[in-house]
Write a structure and sequence with these properties.
By secondary structure, this protein is an alpha+beta fold. It has 2 domains: 4-76 and 109-177, no CATH class; 199-359, no CATH class. It is 35% helix and 11% strand. The protein contains 16 helices and 9 strands. The protein has helices spanning 4-14, 29-40, 49-52, 54-57, 110-121, 123-127, 143-150, 199-203, 221-227, 249-252, 266-269, 279-283, 288-295, 304-318, 325-331, 337-351; strands at residues 19-24, 69-76, 99-101, 132-135, 154-155, 161-162, 170-177, 243-245, 276-277. The strands form 3 sheets. It has a 4-stranded antiparallel beta sheet with strand order 1-2-7-4, sandwiched between helices. A hairpin with a 5-residue loop joins strand 5 and strand 6 (161-162). Helix 15 packs antiparallel against helix 16. The longest helix is centred in the C-terminal third of the chain and has 15 residues, at 304-318. The chain starts with a helix and ends in a 9-residue tail after the last helix. The structure holds iron/sulfur cluster. Residues 156-158, 194, 197-200, 253-256 line the site of iron/sulfur cluster.
């Protein structure tokens, strides 16, 4: 009879998870200082839940009493783009003429995919009368740090977890349990590190990775286009390029990702948003109902109509899409004040590209 740890790992692989490792549910007090610093500098932007959950971040026993083990799973989500993003980071000139979507958001929302799989995986623990809680990017734990402790990979200068086999194109989930399991060895940083590489730092258009192994989330294009509500700072708008939802730049340039393998997860491979979205269609979404019909089940639901159309106004301006002036003009009267403000800004920016535009 295989050990409980082995049963869990076998079950994880049969559920199509790419990797499964286990680490002790120790307190990670050494990270507290870094985390406090991140919050003090307000680099978490508007993500106030990060401050609210601070005491739980490094203390699994506050989440599951007497927690002893954390089971970490990863799921590879890489897919090649048919329309290469030919982004020119130094010039900030995107060459693809529609709105790009980050790879993790091409298909079904990974929270839903993980929840279903983690529920099945945790049945092995239920059968053994163990307490547990599971999370997929929705829990308070510093999951990348625990993933490094479990040996799943190491945290690179772009602050992503990088696995030897899959690079950083992986999503993480975890089960915290009071079961005493067999632990894997922590990642050996001597084996695979960033070294003198700075590719992600120099490629980031907004300079969000200026400090090694730290991110200023308030400047990150992923944060700005997905999490940030309200107005996007005017000085950052041109740097967003053609990213309509999320951003993959710091991963696309990483040498550890050059050998990426295509995901085997059917829910990710079946597109809902797909790799890019037609700007004319997005700018023409009339209301929340139409938005929901189009994106139900996709991570884009997080942005709702308000943020996606806000982002689309910025991308339209950055791509100098004068053919979309009628759509932008219409949105200048939108009932959503955020869309209205960004449309008015985009209109002015686009007009700068029309010779003698005052005459129009
Ligand atoms: S691009 Fe270079 S510096 Fe950045 S995470 Fe990858 S290896 Fe590390």
């Amino acid at each position: 009879m295989p050990s409980l740890s082995q049963q869990i790992k076998d079950s994880a692989l049969s559920l199509n998870f790419s990797q499964c490792k286990i680490c002790p549910a120790d307190n990670l007090d050494s990270y507290q200082k870094h985390y406090q610093n991140f919050l003090d500098k307000k680099q978490h932007g508007e993500m106030d839940y990060l401050r609210k959950h601070q005491s739980l971040k490094t203390n699994p026993c506050q989440i599951v009493p007497n927690a002893k083990s954390i089971i970490l799973v990863s799921l590879n989500y890489f897919q090649a783009r048919k329309n290469a993003n030919n982004w020119a980071p130094k010039l900030h000139i995107p060459q693809h003429r529609e709105g790009q979507v980050a790879r993790y958001a091409f298909g079904r929302d990974y929270h839903k995919v993980f929840r279903k799989k983690l529920k099945i995986l945790s049945q092995t623990l239920t059968a053994n009368h163990q307490n547990f809680r599971f999370f997929a990017d929705s829990g308070p734990l510093l999951e990348r740090q625990y993933a490094e402790l479990s040996g799943l990979g190491y945290i690179g200068k772009n602050t992503m977890l990088i696995s030897k086999k899959y690079g950083s194109w992986i999503l993480l989930g975890e089960i915290i349990t009071d079961a005493k399991l067999d632990y894997d060895l922590a990642f050996d940083r001597k084996k695979m590190v960033c070294g003198s590489c700075q590719k992600c730092q120099t490629a980031c258009p907004t300079n969000a990775l200026s400090q090694d192994y730290k991110i200023d989330a308030s400047k990150c294009i992923s944060y700005l286009t997905i999490e940030h509500s309200g107005s996007i700072p005017v000085e950052l708008r041109p740097k967003i390029g053609n990213w309509l939802f999320g951003c993959d730049i710091c991963q696309e340039v990483c040498p550890h990702n050059f050998r990426a393998k295509v995901s085997q997860e059917p829910d990710f491979l079946k597109p809902i948003a797909g790799e890019s979205l037609n700007l004319k269609e997005i700018l023409s979404i009339p209301n929340d109902e139409t938005f929901t019909q189009k994106f139900a089940g996709s991570p884009l639901m997080r942005a709702k109509r308000s943020k996606l159309l806000r982002n689309a106004c910025i991308v339209t301006s950055n791509l100098k899409r004068l053919d979309l002036l009628p759509e932008i003009q219409l949105l200048c009267q939108d009932s959503d004040p955020i869309i209205q403000e960004h449309a008015q800004w985009a209109l002015k920016e686009l007009q700068k590209n029309i010779p003698n535009y005052q005459k129009i």
